[in-house]
Write a structure and sequence with these properties.
12 helices; mainly alpha; ABC transporter involved in vitamin B12 uptake, BtuC
Length: 265
């Protein structure tokens, strides 16, 4: 079954959707959209370093994404405006990554595949990494779901309950780095943030509980991957961007549903 490239691509898209959905819900609740963007952009530098050092691209991308996320977390409380800080770090990391790639003499690298993804080229080994990473993220979020939710809703309530919000922030940071590392092959660094945010935002009008929003976001993300791949195959369009377009259409439809329900109510 895994000999078929479309089957591998579909499984890869579903794996990334399952990893991104619960994490994306927290990104939406915490208004961390640019945080995810900065972490994703840093992954290009990780790709360049991993190729130069001849180590796993997954390991390099995750290490640099984690370093970026930790840097943002540390500097955010030291007098820097968050939007300015994220803007500087996101674009600087992407620029340094692209420059670093240009120094890789003798190494052939398809830069567009890392920027926009190359889901159709996913191998069996890539599938193992993607699903392994997705299992780690889902397991991590499930393990810390209640403390993460409490820290997201109210930091004072978290402290009074014996929960350290900074520790929960670090857990989210680790989960984000893993998600970026597994998603880079599927949708590329420029579209990772979209797959984090759009399915979760589309799920919000349909959900009545936080858990429901995470499950619906996973369904929307997985459905977008399946439909997007089929659409890209039929229309001969880039697979990664097409998946994001399908997710964006889902967001539009759920937004219209919410507007209609409010008007009717």
């Amino acid at each position: 079954m895994l000999d078929d490239f479309m089957t591998r691509a579909t499984l890869a898209g579903i794996g990334v959707a399952l990893a991104a959905a619960p994490l994306g819900s927290f990104v939406v609740w915490r208004r961390m959209a640019y945080f995810g963007d900065a972490t994703a952009h840093a992954a290009i530098l990780g790709v360049a370093l991993s190729l130069a050092l001849q180590i796993s691209v997954f390991a390099g991308a995750m290490a640099v994404a984690l370093a970026m996320a930790l840097t943002v977390t540390i500097l955010s409380g030291r007098g820097y405006a968050m939007d300015t800080l994220l803007g500087v770090l996101a674009h600087s990391a992407l620029a340094f990554g692209l420059v670093a790639v240009s120094f890789l003499s003798g190494i052939r690298i398809d830069l567009m595949a890392y920027l926009f993804g190359d889901i159709l080229a996913v191998s069996r080994g890539d599938l193992a990494v993607i699903w392994g990473g997705a299992a780690m993220v889902v397991g991590l979020i499930a393990w810390r779901w209640s403390p993460l939710l409490t820290a997201t809703l109210n930091e004072d309530l978290a402290y009074s309950s014996g929960i350290d919000p900074r520790r929960e922030q670090l857990i989210l940071t680790l989960a984000l780095a893993i998600t970026v590392a597994v998603a880079i092959k599927v949708v590329g660094v420029l579209l990772i943030a979209a797959m984090l945010i759009i399915p979760a935002a589309a799920a919000r009008p349909l959900a009545r509980t936080p858990e429901g929003m995470a499950f619906i976001a996973a369904a929307i993300g997985a459905g977008s991957a399946v439909v997007g791949l089929r659409t890209a195959y039929v229309l001969d369009t880039p697979a990664g961007p097409t998946i994001v377009c399908v997710a964006a259409i889902c967001f539009l439809l759920t937004s219209l549903f919410r507007s209609t329900r409010r008007a009717g109510g």
